[in-house]
């Protein structure tokens, strides 16, 4: 996390990317325990197959948590004013997820200098899994 200067940031600037290890069963079990989301489609292969999936897959909120980490490695959590996402694809076992973001707008609101950033997760094939945006207040 760094102390960013509003005047030095330009529309189009990229956030430092966050690369994650391949999604595996242990990761999903740990997230289920931490989040309290024990939906069987994320942890029980037989249940996932009965639901028409080839195997278990990652919780959508795990991907949102990774995007939260992308943002909070760039700015302090207290600077976040908005954070929202849309789930556009399934993150399967073995996917290597990269979280990226870029500044798309600079503006002032409520007496603060703010940035709007577009963020996303994508798998190793470049396919977006989660897309969204966040508003960040800077000094």
UniProtKB/TrEMBL annotation:
It holds the Pfam family MaoC_dehydratas. InterPro entries: HotDog_dom_sf, MaoC-like_dom. Residues 22-113 form the MaoC-like domain. It comes from the Bacteria. This is MaoC-like domain-containing protein.
């Amino acid at each position: 996390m760094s102390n960013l200067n509003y005047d030095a940031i330009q529309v189009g600037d990229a956030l430092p990317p966050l690369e994650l290890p391949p999604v595996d069963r242990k990761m999903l079990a740990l997230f289920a325990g931490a989040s309290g989301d024990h939906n069987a489609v994320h942890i029980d292969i037989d249940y996932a197959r009965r639901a028409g999936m080839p195997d278990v897959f990652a919780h959508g909120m795990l991907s949102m948590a990774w995007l939260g980490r992308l943002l909070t490695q760039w700015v302090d959590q207290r600077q976040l004013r908005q954070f929202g996402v849309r789930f556009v694809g399934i993150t399967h076992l073995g996917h290597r997820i990269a979280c990226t973001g870029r500044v798309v707008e600079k503006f002032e609101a409520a007496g603060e200098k703010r940035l709007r950033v577009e963020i996303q997760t994508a798998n190793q094939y470049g396919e977006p899994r989660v897309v969204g945006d966040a508003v960040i207040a800077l000094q």
